[in-house]
Here is the input.
Amino acid sequence: MKLTIIGTGYVGLVTGTCFAEVGHQVICVDNNTDKVKLLQGGGIPIYEPGLEDLVKKNVAAGQLRFSASTAEGVENSDVVFIAVPTPPLPDGSVDLSFIESVAREIAGAMTSYKIVVDKSTVPVKTGDKVAETIKRYGKSKVEFDVVSNPEFLREGFAVEDLMKPDRVVVGVRTQRPVPAMRALYAPFHAPIIVTDINSAELIKHAANSFLALKISYINAVSVICEASGANVQEVANGMGMDARIGRRFLDAGIGFGGSCFPKDLSAFIKISEQLGYDFALLKEVQRINAGQMDRFVKKITDTLWVLKDKNIGVLGLAFKQNTDDVRLSPAIDLCQRLLKEGAVLRVHDPKAMDKAREVLKNATYVEDMNEVAAGCDALVIATEWPIFKKLDLERARRLLTHPILFDGRNLFDAREMEEMGFIYKSVGR
Ligand code: NAD
Here is the structure.
Protein backbone atom coordinates (compact mmCIF):
# COMPACT_ATOMS: atom_id res chain seq x y z
CA MET A 1 0.00 0.00 0.00
CA LYS A 2 1.05 3.60 -0.48
CA LEU A 3 1.34 5.58 2.74
CA THR A 4 2.48 8.93 3.91
CA ILE A 5 3.33 9.84 7.49
CA ILE A 6 3.06 13.52 8.38
CA GLY A 7 5.51 14.21 11.21
CA THR A 8 8.83 12.35 11.14
CA GLY A 9 9.69 12.25 14.84
CA TYR A 10 10.05 9.36 17.27
CA VAL A 11 6.67 7.95 16.24
CA GLY A 12 6.52 8.95 12.57
CA LEU A 13 10.02 7.88 11.58
CA VAL A 14 9.85 4.50 13.29
CA THR A 15 6.29 3.81 12.10
CA GLY A 16 7.11 4.79 8.52
CA THR A 17 10.28 2.70 8.52
CA CYS A 18 8.55 -0.39 9.90
CA PHE A 19 5.71 -0.07 7.37
CA ALA A 20 8.35 0.16 4.62
CA GLU A 21 10.14 -2.88 6.04
CA VAL A 22 6.99 -5.02 5.68
CA GLY A 23 6.52 -3.99 2.06
CA HIS A 24 4.49 -0.77 1.96
CA GLN A 25 5.61 2.27 -0.06
CA VAL A 26 6.20 5.05 2.46
CA ILE A 27 6.82 8.79 2.29
CA CYS A 28 7.77 10.40 5.61
CA VAL A 29 6.97 14.12 5.63
CA ASP A 30 8.21 16.75 8.05
CA ASN A 31 7.98 20.53 7.98
CA ASN A 32 11.38 20.77 9.64
CA THR A 33 13.43 21.09 6.46
CA ASP A 34 16.74 20.53 8.27
CA LYS A 35 15.44 17.19 9.52
CA VAL A 36 14.27 16.21 6.03
CA LYS A 37 17.65 17.19 4.53
CA LEU A 38 19.47 15.18 7.19
CA LEU A 39 17.32 12.11 6.46
CA GLN A 40 17.65 12.53 2.70
CA GLY A 41 21.43 12.68 3.18
CA GLY A 42 21.47 9.39 5.10
CA GLY A 43 21.50 10.86 8.64
CA ILE A 44 19.18 9.80 11.49
CA PRO A 45 17.87 12.54 13.81
CA ILE A 46 17.11 10.27 16.80
CA TYR A 47 18.70 7.32 18.53
CA GLU A 48 16.51 4.24 18.53
CA PRO A 49 18.03 0.74 18.61
CA GLY A 50 17.92 -0.96 15.20
CA LEU A 51 16.41 2.05 13.42
CA GLU A 52 19.38 3.29 11.43
CA ASP A 53 19.97 0.01 9.60
CA LEU A 54 16.28 -0.35 8.77
CA VAL A 55 16.04 3.21 7.42
CA LYS A 56 19.12 2.74 5.24
CA LYS A 57 17.93 -0.63 3.96
CA ASN A 58 14.46 0.63 3.01
CA VAL A 59 15.70 3.87 1.46
CA ALA A 60 18.14 1.83 -0.67
CA ALA A 61 15.31 -0.53 -1.66
CA GLY A 62 13.15 2.43 -2.75
CA GLN A 63 10.49 1.62 -0.13
CA LEU A 64 11.04 4.73 2.00
CA ARG A 65 11.65 8.36 1.15
CA PHE A 66 11.49 11.74 2.83
CA SER A 67 9.82 14.98 1.86
CA ALA A 68 9.08 18.41 3.28
CA SER A 69 5.81 18.62 1.33
CA THR A 70 2.55 17.37 2.80
CA ALA A 71 0.92 17.88 -0.60
CA GLU A 72 3.44 15.56 -2.25
CA GLY A 73 2.85 12.93 0.42
CA VAL A 74 -0.94 13.14 0.21
CA GLU A 75 -0.97 13.07 -3.58
CA ASN A 76 1.09 9.88 -3.69
CA SER A 77 -0.69 7.90 -0.95
CA ASP A 78 -3.88 6.04 -0.19
CA VAL A 79 -3.45 6.29 3.56
CA VAL A 80 -2.22 9.45 5.33
CA PHE A 81 -0.99 9.15 8.91
CA ILE A 82 -0.80 12.12 11.27
CA ALA A 83 2.10 11.78 13.74
CA VAL A 84 2.74 15.36 14.82
CA PRO A 85 3.27 16.59 18.40
CA THR A 86 0.37 17.11 20.80
CA PRO A 87 2.19 19.02 23.56
CA PRO A 88 0.61 20.20 26.80
CA LEU A 89 -0.70 23.75 27.25
CA PRO A 90 0.03 25.51 30.55
CA ASP A 91 -3.35 24.40 31.99
CA GLY A 92 -2.63 20.73 31.25
CA SER A 93 -4.93 20.46 28.24
CA VAL A 94 -3.58 19.45 24.84
CA ASP A 95 -2.32 21.84 22.19
CA LEU A 96 -4.09 20.52 19.10
CA SER A 97 -2.87 23.25 16.78
CA PHE A 98 -0.39 20.91 15.03
CA ILE A 99 -3.17 18.41 14.34
CA GLU A 100 -5.52 21.13 13.11
CA SER A 101 -2.99 22.64 10.73
CA VAL A 102 -2.05 19.22 9.31
CA ALA A 103 -5.76 18.40 8.84
CA ARG A 104 -6.14 21.62 6.84
CA GLU A 105 -3.05 20.86 4.76
CA ILE A 106 -4.33 17.36 4.01
CA ALA A 107 -7.74 18.75 3.06
CA GLY A 108 -6.15 21.21 0.66
CA ALA A 109 -4.04 18.53 -0.99
CA MET A 110 -6.65 15.74 -1.40
CA THR A 111 -7.87 15.09 -4.93
CA SER A 112 -9.09 11.49 -4.44
CA TYR A 113 -10.39 9.25 -1.62
CA LYS A 114 -7.97 9.02 1.34
CA ILE A 115 -7.94 7.33 4.69
CA VAL A 116 -6.65 9.85 7.21
CA VAL A 117 -5.27 8.06 10.27
CA ASP A 118 -4.49 9.87 13.48
CA LYS A 119 -1.53 8.27 15.25
CA SER A 120 -0.78 11.20 17.55
CA THR A 121 -2.13 10.91 21.10
CA VAL A 122 -5.22 13.10 21.23
CA PRO A 123 -8.18 13.77 23.54
CA VAL A 124 -11.38 11.86 22.97
CA LYS A 125 -13.52 13.43 20.22
CA THR A 126 -10.54 14.82 18.28
CA GLY A 127 -11.35 12.47 15.37
CA ASP A 128 -14.67 14.28 14.92
CA LYS A 129 -12.88 17.62 14.79
CA VAL A 130 -10.36 16.32 12.26
CA ALA A 131 -13.20 15.05 10.07
CA GLU A 132 -15.05 18.40 10.33
CA THR A 133 -11.87 20.31 9.49
CA ILE A 134 -11.06 18.20 6.43
CA LYS A 135 -14.63 18.56 5.25
CA ARG A 136 -14.57 22.32 5.74
CA TYR A 137 -11.23 22.95 4.02
CA GLY A 138 -11.34 20.18 1.41
CA LYS A 139 -12.71 20.13 -2.08
CA SER A 140 -16.41 19.26 -1.84
CA LYS A 141 -16.56 16.04 -3.88
CA VAL A 142 -13.50 14.31 -2.42
CA GLU A 143 -14.39 11.52 -0.01
CA PHE A 144 -12.32 10.47 2.97
CA ASP A 145 -12.46 8.49 6.19
CA VAL A 146 -10.88 9.44 9.50
CA VAL A 147 -9.42 6.64 11.61
CA SER A 148 -7.93 6.73 15.10
CA ASN A 149 -4.92 4.43 15.40
CA PRO A 150 -3.10 5.32 18.63
CA GLU A 151 0.51 4.29 18.99
CA PHE A 152 1.80 2.33 21.98
CA LEU A 153 5.51 2.08 21.16
CA ARG A 154 8.06 2.57 23.91
CA GLU A 155 11.01 4.78 23.07
CA GLY A 156 14.14 2.66 23.29
CA PHE A 157 12.20 -0.40 22.07
CA ALA A 158 10.25 1.32 19.31
CA VAL A 159 11.29 -0.89 16.39
CA GLU A 160 10.59 -4.04 18.40
CA ASP A 161 7.21 -2.68 19.54
CA LEU A 162 6.21 -1.63 16.03
CA MET A 163 7.20 -4.93 14.47
CA LYS A 164 5.57 -7.03 17.21
CA PRO A 165 2.73 -4.99 18.71
CA ASP A 166 0.68 -6.45 21.58
CA ARG A 167 -2.38 -5.14 19.77
CA VAL A 168 -3.35 -2.65 17.10
CA VAL A 169 -6.27 -0.33 17.90
CA VAL A 170 -8.31 0.93 14.97
CA GLY A 171 -11.12 3.39 15.72
CA VAL A 172 -13.53 4.08 12.86
CA ARG A 173 -16.71 6.03 12.10
CA THR A 174 -17.77 3.66 9.30
CA GLN A 175 -16.65 0.21 8.19
CA ARG A 176 -15.27 1.50 4.87
CA PRO A 177 -11.60 1.94 5.94
CA VAL A 178 -11.47 -1.31 7.95
CA PRO A 179 -10.28 -3.71 5.19
CA ALA A 180 -7.46 -1.32 4.25
CA MET A 181 -6.42 -0.90 7.89
CA ARG A 182 -6.41 -4.69 8.34
CA ALA A 183 -4.35 -5.14 5.17
CA LEU A 184 -1.92 -2.48 6.32
CA TYR A 185 -1.27 -4.24 9.61
CA ALA A 186 -1.59 -7.85 8.38
CA PRO A 187 2.20 -8.35 8.06
CA PHE A 188 2.64 -7.68 11.79
CA HIS A 189 0.41 -10.63 12.82
CA ALA A 190 -1.00 -8.73 15.80
CA PRO A 191 -4.53 -8.80 17.22
CA ILE A 192 -6.48 -5.90 15.71
CA ILE A 193 -9.17 -4.24 17.82
CA VAL A 194 -11.69 -2.44 15.66
CA THR A 195 -13.78 -0.01 17.65
CA ASP A 196 -15.36 3.44 17.47
CA ILE A 197 -13.10 6.49 17.29
CA ASN A 198 -13.94 7.82 20.76
CA SER A 199 -13.06 4.49 22.39
CA ALA A 200 -9.82 4.22 20.42
CA GLU A 201 -8.77 7.70 21.53
CA LEU A 202 -9.66 6.90 25.13
CA ILE A 203 -7.77 3.58 25.08
CA LYS A 204 -4.51 5.48 24.63
CA HIS A 205 -5.04 8.00 27.44
CA ALA A 206 -6.49 5.36 29.77
CA ALA A 207 -3.58 2.98 29.09
CA ASN A 208 -0.82 5.55 29.62
CA SER A 209 -2.48 6.92 32.74
CA PHE A 210 -2.77 3.38 34.12
CA LEU A 211 0.94 2.73 33.52
CA ALA A 212 1.82 6.00 35.24
CA LEU A 213 -0.49 4.97 38.10
CA LYS A 214 1.36 1.66 38.42
CA ILE A 215 4.69 3.48 38.74
CA SER A 216 3.30 5.91 41.32
CA TYR A 217 1.80 2.99 43.21
CA ILE A 218 5.15 1.26 43.65
CA ASN A 219 6.80 4.60 44.43
CA ALA A 220 4.27 5.14 47.22
CA VAL A 221 4.98 1.59 48.43
CA SER A 222 8.70 2.46 48.39
CA VAL A 223 8.07 5.20 50.96
CA ILE A 224 6.42 2.67 53.26
CA CYS A 225 9.31 0.25 52.65
CA GLU A 226 11.84 2.87 53.68
CA ALA A 227 9.85 3.76 56.78
CA SER A 228 9.47 0.12 57.81
CA GLY A 229 12.82 -1.35 56.78
CA ALA A 230 11.35 -3.48 53.98
CA ASN A 231 12.84 -3.76 50.50
CA VAL A 232 10.67 -2.45 47.65
CA GLN A 233 12.33 -4.72 45.09
CA GLU A 234 11.39 -7.77 47.12
CA VAL A 235 7.85 -6.45 47.47
CA ALA A 236 7.64 -5.73 43.73
CA ASN A 237 8.93 -9.21 42.88
CA GLY A 238 6.39 -10.79 45.16
CA MET A 239 3.56 -8.68 43.79
CA GLY A 240 4.66 -9.03 40.18
CA MET A 241 4.58 -12.82 40.19
CA ASP A 242 0.82 -12.56 40.53
CA ALA A 243 -0.29 -12.86 36.90
CA ARG A 244 -3.10 -10.40 37.58
CA ILE A 245 -0.53 -7.72 38.48
CA GLY A 246 2.65 -8.44 36.50
CA ARG A 247 6.18 -7.27 37.34
CA ARG A 248 6.56 -4.58 34.68
CA PHE A 249 6.22 -0.91 35.73
CA LEU A 250 6.87 -1.87 39.33
CA ASP A 251 10.34 -0.36 39.64
CA ALA A 252 10.57 2.33 42.28
CA GLY A 253 12.79 5.29 41.49
CA ILE A 254 12.85 9.04 41.05
CA GLY A 255 9.57 9.01 39.13
CA PHE A 256 8.40 8.94 35.54
CA GLY A 257 8.98 11.62 32.93
CA GLY A 258 9.40 11.85 29.19
CA SER A 259 7.25 13.35 26.50
CA CYS A 260 4.26 11.03 27.05
CA PHE A 261 3.29 10.03 30.61
CA PRO A 262 3.24 13.49 32.24
CA LYS A 263 1.39 15.11 29.35
CA ASP A 264 -1.03 12.24 28.75
CA LEU A 265 -1.84 12.12 32.44
CA SER A 266 -2.58 15.83 32.68
CA ALA A 267 -4.53 15.67 29.41
CA PHE A 268 -6.68 12.83 30.73
CA ILE A 269 -7.33 14.71 33.97
CA LYS A 270 -8.34 17.79 31.96
CA ILE A 271 -10.55 15.82 29.55
CA SER A 272 -12.28 14.15 32.50
CA GLU A 273 -12.84 17.55 34.11
CA GLN A 274 -14.35 18.89 30.87
CA LEU A 275 -16.64 15.86 30.78
CA GLY A 276 -17.76 16.54 34.34
CA TYR A 277 -15.63 14.06 36.32
CA ASP A 278 -12.94 14.91 38.86
CA PHE A 279 -10.36 12.14 38.25
CA ALA A 280 -8.79 12.65 41.69
CA LEU A 281 -7.00 9.30 41.53
CA LEU A 282 -4.87 10.57 38.63
CA LYS A 283 -4.13 13.84 40.41
CA GLU A 284 -2.71 11.72 43.24
CA VAL A 285 -0.54 9.88 40.69
CA GLN A 286 0.96 13.25 39.72
CA ARG A 287 1.42 14.27 43.36
CA ILE A 288 3.22 11.01 44.24
CA ASN A 289 5.45 11.39 41.19
CA ALA A 290 6.51 14.92 42.15
CA GLY A 291 7.02 13.83 45.77
CA GLN A 292 9.34 11.04 44.71
CA MET A 293 11.82 13.51 43.22
CA ASP A 294 11.52 15.82 46.23
CA ARG A 295 12.34 12.92 48.54
CA PHE A 296 15.37 11.92 46.48
CA VAL A 297 16.74 15.48 46.47
CA LYS A 298 16.19 15.58 50.24
CA LYS A 299 18.19 12.36 50.56
CA ILE A 300 21.07 14.10 48.80
CA THR A 301 20.85 17.27 50.90
CA ASP A 302 20.41 15.30 54.15
CA THR A 303 23.68 13.54 53.40
CA LEU A 304 25.77 16.28 51.75
CA TRP A 305 24.10 19.12 53.70
CA VAL A 306 25.03 22.30 51.79
CA LEU A 307 25.26 21.65 48.05
CA LYS A 308 26.89 24.94 47.11
CA ASP A 309 30.24 24.21 45.43
CA LYS A 310 29.89 20.46 46.01
CA ASN A 311 31.01 18.42 43.01
CA ILE A 312 28.40 15.85 42.02
CA GLY A 313 28.69 13.28 39.27
CA VAL A 314 25.46 12.32 37.51
CA LEU A 315 25.06 9.16 35.43
CA GLY A 316 22.08 9.33 33.09
CA LEU A 317 20.35 12.26 31.39
CA ALA A 318 17.79 10.55 29.14
CA PHE A 319 14.30 10.15 30.59
CA LYS A 320 14.82 6.41 30.53
CA GLN A 321 17.18 3.74 29.20
CA ASN A 322 17.89 3.12 25.49
CA THR A 323 16.93 6.56 24.24
CA ASP A 324 18.50 9.95 23.55
CA ASP A 325 15.24 11.70 24.45
CA VAL A 326 15.57 14.22 27.29
CA ARG A 327 12.09 15.78 27.02
CA LEU A 328 10.78 16.16 30.61
CA SER A 329 13.52 13.85 31.80
CA PRO A 330 13.58 13.34 35.59
CA ALA A 331 17.39 13.17 35.29
CA ILE A 332 17.52 16.67 33.79
CA ASP A 333 15.08 17.93 36.41
CA LEU A 334 17.33 16.48 39.11
CA CYS A 335 20.43 18.12 37.59
CA GLN A 336 18.66 21.46 37.43
CA ARG A 337 17.65 21.23 41.06
CA LEU A 338 21.22 20.39 42.10
CA LEU A 339 22.57 23.28 40.01
CA LYS A 340 20.04 25.63 41.62
CA GLU A 341 21.47 24.67 45.01
CA GLY A 342 24.93 25.65 43.73
CA ALA A 343 26.33 22.17 43.04
CA VAL A 344 28.94 21.70 40.32
CA LEU A 345 28.01 18.86 37.98
CA ARG A 346 29.92 16.30 35.94
CA VAL A 347 27.42 14.38 33.82
CA HIS A 348 27.34 11.47 31.40
CA ASP A 349 24.78 9.62 29.30
CA PRO A 350 25.50 6.90 26.75
CA LYS A 351 23.29 8.47 24.05
CA ALA A 352 21.62 11.66 25.26
CA MET A 353 24.54 14.07 25.78
CA ASP A 354 24.00 16.02 22.55
CA LYS A 355 20.32 16.59 23.25
CA ALA A 356 21.04 17.30 26.95
CA ARG A 357 23.56 20.03 26.06
CA GLU A 358 20.71 22.05 24.59
CA VAL A 359 18.75 22.13 27.88
CA LEU A 360 21.43 21.65 30.54
CA LYS A 361 24.16 24.17 29.93
CA ASN A 362 26.14 24.56 33.15
CA ALA A 363 27.54 21.07 33.50
CA THR A 364 30.74 19.34 32.44
CA TYR A 365 29.97 16.55 29.96
CA VAL A 366 32.20 13.52 30.46
CA GLU A 367 32.57 10.99 27.63
CA ASP A 368 33.64 8.01 29.76
CA MET A 369 31.16 6.88 32.43
CA ASN A 370 34.06 5.60 34.53
CA GLU A 371 35.56 9.12 34.72
CA VAL A 372 32.45 10.91 35.97
CA ALA A 373 33.26 10.32 39.65
CA ALA A 374 36.67 12.03 39.43
CA GLY A 375 36.97 14.58 42.21
CA CYS A 376 33.28 14.38 43.12
CA ASP A 377 31.76 14.48 46.61
CA ALA A 378 29.08 12.03 45.48
CA LEU A 379 27.82 10.11 42.48
CA VAL A 380 24.15 9.98 41.44
CA ILE A 381 22.45 7.46 39.15
CA ALA A 382 19.48 9.11 37.46
CA THR A 383 18.61 6.84 34.48
CA GLU A 384 18.33 3.05 34.43
CA TRP A 385 20.77 2.42 31.56
CA PRO A 386 21.81 -1.26 31.80
CA ILE A 387 25.44 -0.30 31.03
CA PHE A 388 25.64 1.56 34.34
CA LYS A 389 25.51 -1.85 36.05
CA LYS A 390 28.95 -2.41 34.50
CA LEU A 391 30.38 0.72 36.12
CA ASP A 392 33.86 0.09 37.52
CA LEU A 393 32.75 0.52 41.13
CA GLU A 394 36.22 0.07 42.66
CA ARG A 395 37.52 2.83 40.46
CA ALA A 396 34.49 5.05 41.18
CA ARG A 397 35.08 4.62 44.91
CA ARG A 398 38.72 5.60 44.54
CA LEU A 399 37.93 8.60 42.31
CA LEU A 400 35.27 10.02 44.62
CA THR A 401 36.56 12.31 47.35
CA HIS A 402 33.89 10.67 49.53
CA PRO A 403 32.47 7.25 48.57
CA ILE A 404 28.82 8.35 48.46
CA LEU A 405 26.46 6.96 45.83
CA PHE A 406 22.81 7.97 45.43
CA ASP A 407 21.09 5.41 43.24
CA GLY A 408 17.80 6.79 41.95
CA ARG A 409 17.14 3.65 39.92
CA ASN A 410 18.09 0.86 42.35
CA LEU A 411 20.69 -0.62 39.98
CA PHE A 412 22.95 -2.11 42.64
CA ASP A 413 22.64 -4.45 45.58
CA ALA A 414 22.62 -2.33 48.73
CA ARG A 415 24.57 -4.82 50.88
CA GLU A 416 27.27 -5.36 48.26
CA MET A 417 27.71 -1.62 47.90
CA GLU A 418 28.09 -1.16 51.62
CA GLU A 419 30.57 -4.05 51.78
CA MET A 420 32.61 -2.26 49.12
CA GLY A 421 32.77 0.77 51.40
CA PHE A 422 30.14 2.98 49.80
CA ILE A 423 27.65 5.11 51.65
CA TYR A 424 24.84 3.92 49.41
CA LYS A 425 21.36 5.44 49.30
CA SER A 426 18.73 4.05 46.96
CA VAL A 427 14.92 4.16 46.78
CA GLY A 428 12.64 2.10 49.01
CA ARG A 429 15.37 -0.17 50.35
P1 NAD B 1 8.26 14.36 17.81
O1 NAD B 1 8.33 15.76 18.32
O2 NAD B 1 9.44 13.46 17.97
O3 NAD B 1 7.92 14.38 16.25
C1 NAD B 1 6.91 15.14 15.66
C2 NAD B 1 7.39 15.64 14.29
O4 NAD B 1 6.31 16.32 13.66
C3 NAD B 1 8.54 16.63 14.38
O5 NAD B 1 9.62 16.16 13.59
C4 NAD B 1 7.94 17.93 13.82
O6 NAD B 1 8.90 18.68 13.09
C5 NAD B 1 6.85 17.39 12.92
N1 NAD B 1 5.79 18.34 12.60
C6 NAD B 1 5.17 19.23 13.40
N2 NAD B 1 4.22 19.91 12.70
C7 NAD B 1 4.25 19.42 11.44
C8 NAD B 1 3.53 19.72 10.25
N3 NAD B 1 2.58 20.66 10.25
N4 NAD B 1 3.84 19.04 9.14
C9 NAD B 1 4.81 18.11 9.13
N5 NAD B 1 5.52 17.78 10.22
C10 NAD B 1 5.24 18.43 11.36
O7 NAD B 1 6.97 13.71 18.48
P2 NAD B 1 6.71 12.18 18.79
O8 NAD B 1 7.39 11.79 20.05
O9 NAD B 1 6.96 11.39 17.56
O10 NAD B 1 5.15 12.22 19.11
C11 NAD B 1 4.17 12.40 18.09
C12 NAD B 1 2.83 12.00 18.66
O11 NAD B 1 2.82 10.62 19.01
C13 NAD B 1 2.42 12.74 19.94
O12 NAD B 1 1.04 12.92 19.95
C14 NAD B 1 2.81 11.76 21.03
O13 NAD B 1 2.06 11.94 22.21
C15 NAD B 1 2.48 10.44 20.38
N6 NAD B 1 3.23 9.29 20.89
C16 NAD B 1 4.54 9.40 21.19
C17 NAD B 1 5.24 8.28 21.65
C18 NAD B 1 6.69 8.39 22.01
O14 NAD B 1 7.19 7.48 22.69
N7 NAD B 1 7.41 9.42 21.59
C19 NAD B 1 4.58 7.07 21.81
C20 NAD B 1 3.24 6.98 21.47
C21 NAD B 1 2.57 8.11 21.02
